[in-house]
Amino acid sequence: MADAVVDTVASVPVAVIGAGPAGLMLAHRLARAGVETVVVDTRTRREIETTQRAGILEADAARDLVETGVSDRILRDGHEHEGTELRFGGRAHRVHFKALVGASVWLYPQTDVFIDLADARERDGGTVHFGVKDTEVLDVTTGAPRVRYTAADGTRHEIRARYVVGADGSRSMCRDLVPEDRRVRYGKEYPFAWFGILAEAPPSASELVYAHSEHGFALISRRTETVQRMYFQCSPGESVDAWPDDRVWETLQARVAGEDGFRLNEGPVLDKTVLRFRSFVQEPMRWGSMVLAGDAAHTVPPTGARGLNLALHDVKILAEVLPRALGAAGEAALDDYQPRAMRRVWRAQNFSHWMTGLLHTAPGDSPFDLRRRLGELDNVVATRAGRAYLAEQYTGWPVDSQG
Length: 403
Ligand code: DHB
Fold this sequence. Notes:
FAD/NAD(P)-binding domain, globular, FAD-bd, 4-hydroxybenzoate 3-monooxygenase, FAD/NAD-bd_sf, PheA/TfdB_FAD_monoxygenase
């Protein structure tokens, strides 16, 4: 393929593989710094827009969307949440982020973040090619990497860049370009997955509800005033076909049931998906002229909704170091990237793993395991330090936080 004839050749300082939030936010930030990009993605815009993803943004990330001029739609369509509810032992326990650590989060679905970013690229004249095929990234160990792809209309194109950013998600092909003997992959698989639904019914609660019961985990979130987003722990091999609506509701109601009589508002289930559940990190985040960002370099399990926030943090750093690397500082400016990004990555890995263990049950858990977990949950909600820990981790850390 590498020597095949191409229809066009274009030069650009930075080529970005992946038009998810990481790739598009990076393109947006670089454009503001006067650096042009070309972004390619194998998915169509419609495919990305209709894939359900997580829904929580840290306040800093929400503010960045507005202040960098992506869009202020989050202020109208998003919801600021000053706390969350943990439910276990049949009772509700509120963790008041604002009172505990002075921070809040925004409920604003990732698909809306994507729509705002894609619209902003279009508005600002940025180049994004959706629905491409046969993407190849070549010569990353040289100072002149190239990207080749087949456009949706079948034509072949080459982009000559100085740097390539692999923002191509949890099934990244860019990360495979780091040779096996030069990379380290850290990972953990879990003995469960999440069953995610969209249901047409008004919200069941004003804030998110993270529920633990002896039957397992459930999360109650929402998308709009008439559509709820909910998840429950299931086995990794689960098939959506085995889950008629009645069974979904019975399962969810059992996981949130309690002495307070709390019930979920039921309605037609519009979408059912089984979500993959894993922890993953690859190092290094840079190989020659290529850097990895977001899920391509690290994946967290969804509990605590850190993934999108981590990706946005990576590109905030990249948008600072890439213009320097293109200028007088040269490649050495990229040396900062991995240490600055990875500190937060491992903090988030720990938090996502901890919150997962706190709220899920694992097959084979002994009666001791189940009672110990209730003790841990009690420690979290019944002590100020426990609540503050959850609040601080959930709302995120200051950018590049050393504290
Ligand atoms: C949502 C998803 C999460 O993983 C989470 O922790 C909170 C909210 C959501 O999709 O709304």
